[in-house]
Fold:
Amino acid sequence: MAGGFINADLSKVPCYSAAEIAANGALLDGRIIHDVAKKAWEDVALGHAYGTKSVLSIPPGELSGHPLFSDAMSLEERLGWKLSCLSSVNGRYGAVKIVGANALNRQLGLARSRSTITLLDKFTLVPLCLLDGTEISAVRTASYATVILERFLAPCRDLSVFLFGAGPIAEKIILALDRCHGEKIARVFVRSRTNETATRLAASTAEKVAFEIMPVLDNRDLRQCGFVITASNAKAPVFEADEIANAVVLHLGGDETPSGHLERALRCGAVLCDNVEMVSRRGSQSLALHFARCGTTLEQLAPLLGIRPITAAGDFSEIAKEQPVHITCVGLPMLDLYVAAHVYEALAGVKIDQSGGALTA
Structure:
């Protein structure tokens, strides 16, 4: 390969910290990441990019003997301990992302979730760089909101959005929505486990966006919202089925959506996933759990019930008429790959021959 960018000596593989990535101005700007994600979705649909995801979880009791664990620690959210591995390839690159998450980390002054990404040359599988993937993960997850709004709610104006969650991903969602669709949105309601965190998020983002950010204590405003996003780490559903109208619901968290809403969407609306197989096998989100509680699996019944992957959705404007629309997203490894490649190319000053040719400076 030209230019010496592929080097089997691991001591010479560049590492990019979160600070280095953040220092590069608009590198993770919501509009830019939206366009990167759209390219990823196009390549996934064409079969040019694909990947897999595995998740290892442990029972909470296994942590009780750890020296950092205290009986005083209590959680109002899911423990969410998981060690995940996301692997993917496209025409030029391969990538592996390792995610470690544990809600108790918050009580130790640590982030709940941390990610590390190794970007590889696809042909040789030699590492090209190592990246702190935490911000990359957050912005790629936020891109689901901008892409879904574009596909399913494009004609809307004066749109009200209800966002459950007030963590890093919720912040990225708000900023990305403004960058990509700010003129379509009138207001975003934010509800979190505590009013303090919702208020803090609203205050930190209010002057950065064109629409109004409104922290709320309950779901009274939910019925007026055409777009609902669940991005929390809640232990149980965050709304009741009768509290929501014919909205597009984007489910990004765990067991946040009630069965009554899922049954209504299955009966008279539309249900989609970013990847049916991955959502089913992960088994920790409301849609997969709904089928597991009935003694079957999402993967088994999806074809019979018309549950589709987003990539095979066809005419989105027509699907949007099948109200309500429910979309569960597990987090595709390919999105991490494309965002990581974007960051690498910018920071390393590398230009890519997309036909699979040499790397050049």
Summary: The first strand starts at residue 15 and ends at 16.
